[in-house]
């Protein structure tokens, strides 16, 4: 069914196979939360799990918990719980540190496996990917090159044959464009390049098949679609075939083959544990564990079906486009104008399903309109966010959003734009961050 | 008063100016916890503070908390709370990542400030310091050299004039030896070397004066004496005079001068924020904040007085030595024998106050005795730990230990050794980790 009315959405929610998951999350009253692509909502089990970790594991059992509560192995046991979400084997993923740090480890390890010296990245990637590449390249003598990965330049840049490592975001943080991970990985390998995937905006949002695609390395965060809490520990995937040779630079004692020998020289652990460095924040790990236990019950194929249905619905109401049919206006080189869509809104997110993650990015053609529109929507209880220079971002999280939420949010957005409500001066004043 | 009986200790506790702090911590019934140098005890305020952070800041306010709850600035506001504990200005310390990662940043930044290429470290330093130095040296083309920092080799190694960076632990993790931070810093500077101090085993244990000593960089953990929870975020200190030039390799977006410009090129922030990389685990930060609020009320001079009185007492009962008088047996080249001390125990920790941190490390001269003695003591409710090859470690935390606790622990240890209780076979069986 293609929903067109709110009643249609009520009916879709009634038969939604994922409907029960909503009860697993805490959601503020009167809010439609479309920013789970920035910070996932709180799982209902998290406060209790964290309290138990703090009061029993830490407060009562103290250092004994390094053994009895499995603290020492958390980077591996949590990694094993993330593995099915990224299509990896349980012993190919470890949890720890932040995305930036893991990216640095993966990039340097990959560069050391190649006799070439170019790191190919995307011009529009999330800044930390650009900056960390800059840092890793400087230290290793490599050179950063950037292309638009959604155009023909990617193939051309790989075809030069001098690319050591390709670093791409699986889903673009701004536009929500989903890249063809298997095809790009194959193309990179054909040209002798290794691939590091940044999964921050795709893990928990779309099905991922790292092993089957032959991906080399991947990193990702857990605080967006995975609901592990602000700044929660990140993860790193290394294909098993690279474990014996991967040589990462942050050689700390948790990555040692025999950490409790306290040996004077570093000897990397045989498996993916060699990517670990030091102790990890176990209070934060407890929150991650609680959220991964929710994800263990979710079927990613169902998540994807609902995600696409929700973004279709949102796009249809806000832009008047018929999603799934054709590329967005901007991509076909046409200047958008008010009247192009129902409310003058244009989608930056691809309309075709194969290239869409689980977020929708919209433009309103007037300069400077994005920010106040988002603020005006927030005042109505619809939380999205804004990314410079002009993008309004809306994330869709099938585990805790209903079709009626999407309908209500989309119609509120149209109303805010059509009535000119967003033009009130107070909406233009910038908050410090968001 | 030099306490010699349990009644003396009861009296000392009655007049202890720090006595009230014990109520601020959760301590398991029937346990004397002498492992706060490994994992600090749980502050009573922590569970509530973390629950509030999770349920209100994350669960209810969601992304708005990046502004309203000060999430974005946590690395700086928490750094400012650590600053007085290390003798730094509030804007010279940031919190984030782990000790190993911060060590890597500080080492590479220091190496880049020098035209020399030797990193001088300690042969017996905690392994991660050795391994991270190895990793940083390989990437930068530097060379690691190691000496015993408590012997004459340190001065000789610095005098060669080719040392770029000296990396030392302020307190040795095994022996508890305290190094003279101001004097060593001065000596290093006289020879043109920069100094990176590892404060893991000294912060919260002894007063520290980084600024006044002219220290260049320092890193430390917060989960030992600072009670922030297992694996809690670490901190990094950079002297203000280095802020404009320090160039660290993990250039992520949180270290950018204008992170919300999403600029394509990296430009480091003007202050110590340039040492930040990516998002930090805010759930763990909340636990750190709760513990630092306890520390804000503590007078480090009082902490030091009580710490020395407690380690004196413990040493007197367990080794029969008169602490504060002379160096330990091993240091004067004499082979210890049963009968040397009351229970045949020898101190590896210096007896003179100037060289003692807040822990005591003991040896029992029989090979392999250390581990089962520690296990037998744990069965009696006295928790210390064991470090290969043969050291029994006991940490003293003046905020939550009483003199009677120290008396009871010391007499229990003497009893376990004298009665031969530890020789029971079950104590020799190794647990997976400690």
Strand runs of chain A, count: 15
Enumerate how many helices of chain A there are, as a single number.
13
At CATH level 2, the architecture of the largest domain in chain A is 3-Layer(aba) Sandwich
The CATH superfamily of the largest domain in chain A is identified as: Type I PLP-dependent aspartate aminotransferase-like (Major domain)
Q: Encode the helix/strand succession of chain A as letters.
A: HEEEHHHEHEHEHEHEHEEHHEEHEEEH
In the CATH scheme, the class of the largest domain in chain A would be Alpha Beta
Provide the domain count of chain A.
Answer: 2
Largest interface, counted by CB within 8 Å of the partner chain's CB: A-B, 88 and 89 residues
Helix content of chain A: 25-40%
Identify the overall geometry of chain A: globular
What attributes does this structure have?
13% strand, four-stranded antiparallel beta sheet, Aspartate Aminotransferase, domain 2, seven-stranded mixed beta sheet, 35% helix, Aspartate Aminotransferase, domain 1, 434 residues, 13 helices
Describe the structure.
Chains A, B: It catalyses: L-kynurenine + H2O = anthranilate + L-alanine + H(+); 3-hydroxy-L-kynurenine + H2O = 3-hydroxyanthranilate + L-alanine + H(+). Chains A, B: InterPro entries: Aminotrans_V_dom, Kynureninase, PyrdxlP-dep_Trfase, PyrdxlP-dep_Trfase_major, PyrdxlP-dep_Trfase_small. 2 copies of one chain form a homodimer. The first copy, chain A, is of the alpha/beta class. Chain A folds into 2 domains: 6-30 and 299-428, Aspartate Aminotransferase, domain 1 (Alpha-Beta Complex); 48-295, Aspartate Aminotransferase, domain 2, CATH 3.40.640.10. In chain A, 35% of the residues lie in helices and 13% in strands. Chain A has 13 helices and 15 strands. Chain A has helices at residues 6-14, 46-60, 65-68, 74-86, 99-112, 127-140, 153-159, 181-190, 210-213, 282-295, 300-319, 370-379, 403-419; strands at 25-26, 32-33, 42-43, 93-95, 118-122, 143-147, 163-169, 194-198, 217-220, 235-238, 346-347, 359-363, 382-383, 385-387, 391-395. Chain A has a 7-stranded mixed β-sheet, sandwiched between helices. In chain A, strands 11-12-15-14 form a 4-stranded antiparallel β-sheet, with helices on one face. In chain A, helix 9 (210-213) links the parallel strand 8 (194-198) and strand 9. Chain A is globular and about 70 Å long. Chain A starts with 5 loop residues before the first helix and ends in a 15-residue tail after the last helix. At the A-B interface, helix 2, helix 3, helix 5, helix 6 and helix 10 of A face helix 2, helix 3, helix 5, helix 6 and helix 10 of B.
